[in-house]
Amino acid sequence: MDVSEGTFQAAVIDRSHTLPVVVDFWAQWCGPCVQLGPVLERAVAARAGKLELAKIDADANPRLVRTFGIRGIPAVKAFRDGKVAAEFTGAKPPAAVDSFLDALLPSDADALVARGDEESLRRALELEPTRSDAAVPLARILHGRGEPAEALEILARVPASFTADGLVARVTLERAASAPGQPTPGQPGAPDLREAFAALDAGAHERALELLLGALSSSDGAREDIRRVIVGILDELGTEHPLAREYRRRLATTIY
Fold this sequence. Notes:
Layout: H1 8-14, E1 21-26, H2 31-46, E2 52-57, H3 62-67, E3 75-80, E4 83-89, H4 94-102, H5 108-115, H6 118-127, H7 132-144, H8 148-155, H9 162-178, H10 194-201, H11 205-216, H12 223-237, H13 242-255
Parallel strand pairs: 1-2
Antiparallel strand pairs: 1-3, 3-4
Helix pairs in contact: 2-4, 5-6, 6-7, 7-8, 7-9, 8-9, 9-12, 10-11, 11-12, 11-13, 12-13
């Protein structure tokens, strides 16, 4: 597919949100470009439907050349989700091109995570035991089914994930609230977080965050676990989400 400055947005940037788009910056006078072109075309064709190839004439599209800092051709840039995900410059042998393209494609675990059902998530974790985007949804399924022990066991394998840690903290809080001899939720020393967790389960993140933040000031013994739950929610929302920005600031104010 030949792409120009006028069609680049739709053909490459927008399309890359659906599947990877490999862009070959080339020119007719460039010997290595002429060598690489057929190699790329055959390799992409062999992976039919999994990615696309866009060819850009560097001489005819100088603005794109400047935008992407092309200093030598052939230059190959792979786009995924609107951004450059991988790149190389110069002619490459078929084996190197195959490796480059295969690295752009979803792995078996990626496909299983995308399905999202319990069986698929378990199979994904068999392939990649520390994968947080499989462990967290599976732990939520187990937690919702009343199997917190297995949920915690799965989450314990996930390193450096605030989302996973927040779910661990929630299970810890719920277990503490239901332990024999503990004060009834709402009594001094026993924060009532049931409404907050119900809002969270319903997807009402702002309501959940507001209730959890409000519980911090009167929950000395549970303060750290509540903080971890809030941080986990903010992590899952993402740094650019408006709620995440607002409640990260408010959490810092409340704690410090």
